[in-house]
Design goal:
It is built from twelve helices and nine strands.
Length: 268
Amino acid sequence: MSRIKTTFDSLQAQGRKALIPFFTAGFPSVELTVPLMHTLVESGADIIELGVPFSDPMADGPTIQRSSEKALANGMNLRKVLEAVANFRADNCDTPVVLMGYANPIEAMGLENFAKAALDAGVDGVLVVDYPPEESEEFSRVLLSQSLDPIFLLAPTSSQERFEQVGRLAHGYVYYVSLKGVTGSGSLNLDEVAQRIPGIRAAVGLPVGVGFGIRDAATAGRMAAIADAVVVGSRIIEELENAPAGQECAQVAALVQSLRQGMDSVGS
């Protein structure tokens, strides 16, 4: 059984929802990547989404784009991301790690080589923004052959057919993009999200995490009442951008603790 499924099963038994923070590996520095991963777990994260920086991140708003640019300038690349996960695994064998990024670095490494390297490093799932489900049979097959969960995005504009396509390929959980647009944009309509989630669950048969637009404990709590997981990314990157040197982990810890408290105050 995958670490992702084990985590969701355990949380369900406790009547709790998963908190999934995202940050870009290599931002604000390569050296802080592993300490930040440990900080997230210690502060209440259940799953970590680790961004693989890419030069043309089409689904990401300006905040995450800036973090990718800085991470690339710092020398971060896919192989170093996998090294960071392996270093994290030296002290943490339980928390699932999902890589989130784009096809180009994976294609450059070769899908099968990447999947083997990801398994060896201790990765649990992979979300590739520009691998649409209609063209992802091979992607899903290769990942599953290495016991990795292929994770897919769904959006407010996704059709029932897209739900069913994702349901045939996805494992672990699905990521529902709550807004039309890029990360960090727009205002969140919780009623619309609440109307969509039951249909997604029915079609995919997996937990549904919701991201884009969740910026504080109150919103995280309201989202936890309707979704299986809450994904927070741009807000964490902003905290890292604004933190004084040496205070990055402390400021992220305070934010993640507040999100966790907001989610747990709602209950199942």
